[in-house]
Amino acid sequence: MTQRLYQGVENEIDATTAILAETKGKSCCGEAASRRARSTDKLREECGVVAIHGHPSAARQAYLGLYALQHRGQESAGIATADGQRLANIKGMGLVSEIFTDDVLAKLPGTMAIGHTRYSTTGDSALLNAQPIRVDSTKGLIAIAHNGNLVNLGNLRASLERDGAYFQTTSDSEIIVQLIAHSGSSTLVDAIADSLSKIDGAFSIVMMTRDRVFAARDPRGFRPLSMGRIKNPGAPDTVVFASETCAFDLLRAEYIRDVLPGELVMVTEDGVTSRQYSSGVPQTSCIFEHVYFARPDSRIFGRWVQESRDQMGRQLARESGVAADVVVPVPDSGVTAALGYAEEARIPFRFGLIRNHYVGRTFIEPEQRVRDFGVRLKLNPVHNLLEGKRVILIDDSIIRGTTSRKIVRMVRGAGAKEVHLRISCPPTISPCFYGVDTPSKRELIAANNSIEEIRRYIEADSLAYLSLDGLLGAVQDQGRTCHCTACYTGDYPTQWVDVEDILPATVSL
Ligand code: SF4
């Protein structure tokens, strides 16, 4: 019975070569992988999702949406389309623009589409786990793509396997589809609502059948998901969903609202309907979306990211001002906070570090041998702006400290007299279990060292972080949104966490 449910899992059209094999543990987008094997010194996002209903070139619209969401994942991408009869799906490894040429888009007919772009580590960059996943289930053909990470998947998977389920991938998305297929509910929308109420963790999901599009967020609203529309003169509006509103700008879509935490939205030819499949769970939207992940031109959780980052920089200047000649951002994500800091502190802002935007993905792969060269490949100091200056460097995080040390050395090597590092969020002391690729606690420098010890390690003249209260104040929106701050507090909003990952180090630096 269950085997039959999955006969329709396809070997999608392969735009790449390698399909990697088995992985272990949990990681971004819910695939199994060893988080401890990762060595990048920046936190990595998750994934980006997009959905289109009612557009003659749905695949191209999904492509444009994914193009705008490329910062949320650069390892693989996929688009599934439906034309009322068939459901096509193409996935590949690489950037959206590399995979979806005109020829490839021409193979995706239909007025509906969902899309996904994904980050993963080398070990689990498997096409097998790329999304959307298309499944021929007892409830019909379903394509699904999701951003986030389930935290009770071990139990769910075991219980589904006891019921005879046979898994073809290690993706959380497949668990969701299995739950839908095994649901006793008679209608598809009831089965989806029933399944979503059984899973715990972070998920912003887009789903599609031959004739309907669905979008849903987890009850705590960890990850963003917004709804918009494209006005079509003389024809019904196109309804669009995207992880971030910057995608709407490229689609010339108008923002309507966020999909609410615990909400399931369904779009059919007859229009948009919605139901609250879960309520009463406290909201814990990821505050790190505002600090780092989301683009500054996006509006997430009802607030402009640019505004939040500007406020973080201003508050940082109020909390930890220091006499200096110039404020320099670590590009690109430190730029907006540095602008706020400089304005508040009345110190000139200068691009004293220049980023090379053309470094290939080969050089930003999370591998140790690459990381040692990565900083010099990506950043170069502007000597005449730094020479003889007291410099305030603004960055958005310190993970292991290795990159920060290289940047401080680089600025000092360019002739800076003093280097003061300011971080636009509190110290990262705990790993994330909700779709963000974080090292284990053993590898987080702030989990195992005092701020003074970190300062000595990175060789800065002074080091200060934004306070938690300062950060919460910077993202506040008249109390409408509550945030997850677990990576700064260790206080997790869900019950299920990986105990091994939250053990502190036994030795310090
Ligand atoms: S633990 Fe940190 S990164 Fe993860 S969801 Fe919470 S705030 Fe976001």
Outline:
With 509 residues, this protein is an alpha+beta fold.
Query: Helix segment count?
Result: 18
Strands of the widest sheet, in order across it, are 1-5-4-6-3-12-11-13
- Class by helix and strand content? alpha+beta
Distance between the termini: 55 Å
Share of helix among residues? 25-40%
Description of the structure:
The chain has 509 residues and is of the alpha+beta class. 28% of the residues lie in helices and 25% in strands. It is built from 18 helices and 26 strands. It has an eight-stranded mixed sheet with strand order 1-5-4-6-3-12-11-13. A six-stranded antiparallel sheet has the order 7-8-9-10-14-15, with helices on one face. The protein is globular, with a radius of gyration of 23 Å. Mean pLDDT is 85; it is low at 1-39. The structure holds iron/sulfur cluster. The site of iron/sulfur cluster has 11 residues, from helix 18. Iron/sulfur cluster binds at residues 222, 286-288, 432, 434, 436, 484-487.
